[in-house]
Specification:
By secondary structure, this protein is α/β, with parallel strands linked by helices. It folds into 2 domains: about 160 residues, Rossmann fold (3-Layer(aba) Sandwich); about 100 residues. Helices cover about 50% and strands about 10% of the residues. It contains 14 helices and 5 strands. A 5-stranded parallel beta sheet has the order 2-3-4-1-5, sandwiched between helices. Helix 8 crosses helix 9, helix 11 crosses helix 14 and helix 13 packs antiparallel against helix 14. It binds zinc ion. Zinc ion binds next to helix 3.
Length: about 325
Amino acid sequence: MSAAPVWHAPHWQRLRAALDADRLPHALLLCGPAGLGKRVFAQRLLARLLCTAPQQGEACGHCHGCRLRLAQTHPDAYAIGLGVNREGKPRSEIVIEQIREVCERLQLASALGGRRVALVDPADALNAAAANALLKTLEEPPAAALLILLADHPQRLPATVRSRCRRVQFRLPPAAEAVAWLQAQDLAGDRAHALDAADGNPGLAAGYLREGALARREAVRSELAQLLARRADALALAQSWAQDEPRQRLLFAAQWLAREMRAQAAGERGPLASGRDLRRLMRGYEQAVRTRELLRGPLRADLALLDFLSLRGD
Ligand SMILES: [Zn+2]
């Protein structure tokens, strides 16, 4: 996501006003679905806060503060991500040592005399101990410091943490804004189709266009339709899905099943033309969602997929 999308504007203006009035909160929670540019927003704010000569409310890009930030060596900017563990393997959660280290640094005086800013991303990956450690800092926030938390799934954060952050909630923009933004991106392919596939999420639609996911989605539709008509082999499909973006395929499968249900409920012919009853489609939908969650873990994808693709219970 390059230039700031138009749906960021109200949030940006509100924060800018708070900043101008020197009433910026100590902690922000940027949340909402992936694909709406929360990280772009966070970086824009971080840049603005570390810039020593902002122009029209934006970072100038060439002062000392900006240069250090661009070189990723600004002494007052900290970023916490998933990182790697002692064995060098990627972590699946943010751990207490990471939070402690940053919170200790936030207590120190600013190196360049401005604000200190810490970015926690993804904040919904904080484990319980880390969230607790963060809570202590949120309860007694150091002066001239800002914590920016990013979360696609804020409900995974403890309510105590959420309640001590100013929430900046990103929502799906109106269709016209989403289409206009997509048009301005350097992308090939059918944008309206991509936006429909992404249920109106412009960043997700752009991702689909970039990676050619629409063809995969269409394949999932036709394979599901064949399965429901008992004209496909679940085992062969499970093996082929396991080789190529199984979680995305399950997302598309759940979406097609949901659309099939909606069409049936409205007495129309659905995208899967299944003729199955709603109860059975619902079971398939739930299993697609569940299997997708299961595949986050170290599970054999083909076996989990076979379980779903057998569409048992009918
Ligand atoms: Zn600057």
